[in-house]
Amino acid sequence: VRNIGVGSSPTSLCWDSRGNRVYVANSQSYNVSVIDCAGDSVAATIVIGPGHVPGRVYYNADLDRVYLANGGADNVKVIDCATNTVRKTLNVGHAPVAFAWYPGQLRTFVANNGSSSISVLKDSVTGVEEMTKSEGEMTKAATVVRGVLLLPEARGEKREARSELLDVQGRRVLALRAGVNDVSRLASGVYFVREAQAQAQAQAIRKVIVQR
């Protein structure tokens, strides 16, 4: 239908379903072309910079972000589709080549071909962060993101043990199970998760915040 001129050596592309745009990674011109699908024209060019080799691009519709793998610099650029700017640069393994997103735990997985490893990026309400060792330990606690409460399974938990969500008055508002719990209908505010801990013969209580 039409030929659209972009940067040098385009290597991959992805479609932004919200804005109806296509993001094209240009490996030899160190930039990303943004194509307006309505007009079949380049609407913007995002400069990545020398020393980077733009490779695979991936669009996350939930966050309205484009992830760009930089093989030359061993990092991932996170592009904000609303502004077409690089929001954050995350260091990963050597030669990242592919992405996968797991919505159940809000995680983006990056395959690093050169280091035979997988990097895990943590998707949050405010943006995207690298998952460090300490952060990985924090995910063992109950967390609330976008109307979903994620409750890890307690080690040694007995089948009859139950966890529950309490309001600030100590009243039970929801019975919880390990994994995904829908809290989108609850009013914003401070709540407490009472987790069953069979090993310690006690119950751990953690504070969580539900917000819109």
Number of strands: 19
Q: Give the helix tally.
A: 1
The pLDDT mean sits at 82
Radius of gyration: 21 Å
Net shape: elongated
Description:
The chain is mainly β. 3% of the residues lie in helices and 53% in strands. The chain contains one helix and 19 strands. A hairpin with a 2-residue loop joins β13 and β14. The termini are far apart. About 4% of the residues have low confidence.
Summary of the model, kept short:
This protein is an all-beta fold. 3% of the residues lie in helices and 53% in strands.
Question: Tags for this entry?
Answer:
212 residues, mainly beta, 4-stranded antiparallel sheet, 19 strands
Question: Which helices and strands occur, and which strands form pairs?
Answer:
Elements: E1 10-16, E2 21-26, E3 31-36, E4 41-47, E5 54-60, E6 65-70, E7 75-80, E8 85-91, E9 96-102, E10 107-112, E11 117-123, E12 128-130, H1 133-138, E13 143-145, E14 148-151, E15 163-166, E16 172-176, E17 179-182, E18 189-197, E19 202-210
Antiparallel strand pairs: 1-2, 2-3, 3-4, 5-6, 6-7, 7-8, 9-10, 10-11, 11-12, 13-14, 14-17, 15-16, 15-18, 18-19
